[in-house]
């Protein structure tokens, strides 16, 4: 029994498509490998400079020890730390972005100059209370502490009490939030108010956050970075984002945040408000997203070539389908390699133009004329334009892709509506 040539060719094209899927998967694996190396570069910069920073404080702290005797008359004790969050906390300053590189890989860091002002109406929360009947509680002097995620990022600190400078020391004396600085406050009366100010020079990587551990917290930040991503538990109450940078302000009260109680309980991850310095056009993320549309590209191109065969009678060999598919697939590899050295848009224009030119001249020979080849190349250019729109419009990518596919299907159905598929198959089988 003689096989139908049409169905035989479809089977061969299915194998060709499978081979191209393997090529796309290998290129996708290369993208993931480069992403992993970028993360290694980020970790390398964080280890050599400082990681993301989260500020906690200033807080008043007091180390205490409770002594008692058990039922057998043996002495026992426990140590604990009391904290007093300020009634009002204000954090203001600027974050200057600084781009650093590890080889080809870019890492976003920043240098911050911040001013923190904290006010307490009293420090009654530092009054010790024993948990055992008849116990004796001994406490040390009160100190003020300030904690950061990575103390290596501290470049300078000036602490003042009612306008008078205090000598700061490394460490916080707190058993949970250890990284930072502190200053003793000997002779502080627990029933009086206190005002402290802290001028801070700080560096960090990628993300900056503040723990709103106060009765009322206000934060105002400015930066020349034009692509902030606001996160944490609280979004800014007001913000302005433009090409020249951003300004953002937060207002958080103890009614909305339990951060002060979380800190008093020693929780390691209290509530925060964050801003992250992101790159909206990450070449590896964009390349990965582009590859996900690769199979659709190949399918649409094969459909176009197949329609040309049906409507013009021009025969196209499966090897030619394979070469066209390889050109489409290698576009993504070219895009990845160029985007590591050039802005993504420029890399995309170069890679897509190169692929369109190669496919135009090849299609002119494959389809029997420069007019058909130019039309084919123009269609490929339109596909690349549509792909860039899909990549740049993340929020509307699904609807744009769905409309594009439906339009292509409608065009195929319109062009083939008068074909007699039974006769076509019978003719091909003769």
What is the CATH first-level class name of the largest domain? Answer: Mainly Beta
Shape: elongated
Radius of gyration: 33 Å
Number of domains: 2
Mean pLDDT: 86
CATH topology annotation of the largest domain: Immunoglobulin-like
Structural class: alpha+beta
Multimerization state: single chain
Q: Give me the strand/helix succession.
A: HEEEEEEEEEEEEEEEEHEHHHHHHH
Largest pleated sheet = 9 strands, mixed
Transmembrane segments: 293-312, 319-338, 344-363, 370-391, 397-415
Pfam families: CreD
InterPro entries: Uncharacterised_IM_CreD
Protein name: Inner membrane protein
What do these coordinates show?
The mean pLDDT is about 85. This protein folds into two domains: about 5-35 and about 285-430, no CATH class; about 55-280, Immunoglobulin-like (Sandwich). The longest helix has about 45 residues, at about 5-50. The chain contains nine helices and 17 strands. About 40% of the residues lie in helices and about 30% in strands. It has helices at about 5-50, 260-265, 285-290, 295-310, 320-340, 345-365, 370-390, 395-415, 420-430; strands at about 55-70, 75-85, 90-100, 105-120, 135-140, 145, 155-160, 165, 170, 180-185, 195-205, 205-210, 215-225, 230, 240, 245-255, 275. The chain is of the alpha+beta class and about 425 residues long. Strand 3 (about 90-100) and strand 4 (about 105-120) form a beta hairpin. It is elongated and about 105 Å long. The strands form two sheets. Strands 1, 2, 5, 6, 9, 10, 12, 14 and 17 form a nine-stranded mixed β-sheet that branches. This is Inner membrane protein. Keywords: Membrane, Transmembrane, Transmembrane helix. It comes from Roseateles saccharophilus. InterPro entries: Uncharacterised_IM_CreD (IPR010364).
């Amino acid at each position: 029994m003689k096989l139908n040539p049409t169905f035989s060719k479809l089977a061969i094209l299915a194998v060709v498509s499978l081979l191209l899927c393997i090529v796309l998967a290998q290129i996708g694996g290369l993208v993931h490998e480069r992403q992993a190396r970028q993360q290694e570069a980020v970790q390398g910069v964080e280890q050599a400079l400082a990681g993301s920073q989260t500020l906690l404080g200033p807080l008043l702290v007091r180390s205490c020890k409770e002594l008692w005797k058990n039922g057998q008359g043996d002495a026992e004790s426990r140590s604990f730390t009391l904290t007093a969050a300020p009634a009002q906390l204000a954090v203001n300053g600027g974050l200057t972005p600084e781009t650093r590189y590890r080889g080809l890989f870019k890492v976003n860091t920043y240098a911050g100059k911040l001013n923190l002002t904290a006010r307490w109406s009293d420090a009654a929360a530092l009054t010790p209370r024993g948990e055992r009947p008849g116990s004796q509680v001994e406490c040390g002097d009160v100190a003020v502490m300030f904690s950061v995620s990575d103390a290596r990022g501290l470049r300078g600190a000036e602490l003042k009490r009612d306008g008078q400078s205090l000598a700061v020391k490394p460490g916080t004396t707190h058993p949970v939030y250890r990284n930072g600085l502190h200053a003793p406050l000997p002779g502080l009366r627990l029933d009086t108010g206190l005002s402290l100010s802290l001028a801070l020079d700080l560096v960090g990587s990628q993300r900056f956050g503040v723990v709103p551990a106060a009765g009322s917290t206000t934060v105002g930040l400015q930066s020349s970075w034009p692509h902030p991503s606001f996160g944490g538990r609280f979004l800014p109450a007001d913000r302005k984002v433009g090409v020249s940078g951003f300004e953002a302000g937060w207002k958080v009260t103890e009614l909305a945040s339990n951060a002060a109680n979380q800190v008093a309980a020693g929780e390691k991850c209290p509530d925060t408000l964050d801003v992250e310095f992101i790159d909206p056009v990450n070449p590896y993320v964009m390349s990965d997203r582009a590859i996900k549309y690769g199979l659709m590209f190949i399918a649409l191109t094969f459909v176009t070539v197949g329609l040309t065969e049906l409507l013009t009678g021009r025969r196209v060999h499966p090897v030619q389908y394979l070469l066209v598919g390889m050109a489409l697939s290698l576009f993504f590899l070219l895009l990845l390699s160029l985007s590591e050295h050039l802005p993504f848009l420029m890399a995309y224009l170069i890679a897509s133009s190169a692929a369109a030119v190669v496919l135009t001249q090849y299609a002119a020979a494959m389809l029997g004329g420069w007019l058909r080849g130019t039309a084919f190349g123009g269609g490929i250019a339109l596909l690349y334009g549509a792909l860039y729109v899909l990549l740049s419009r993340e929020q509307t990518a699904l609807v744009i892709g769905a409309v594009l596919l439906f339009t292509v299907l409608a065009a195929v159905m319109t062009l083939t509506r008068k074909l007699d598929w039974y006769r076509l198959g019978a003719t091909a089988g003769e």
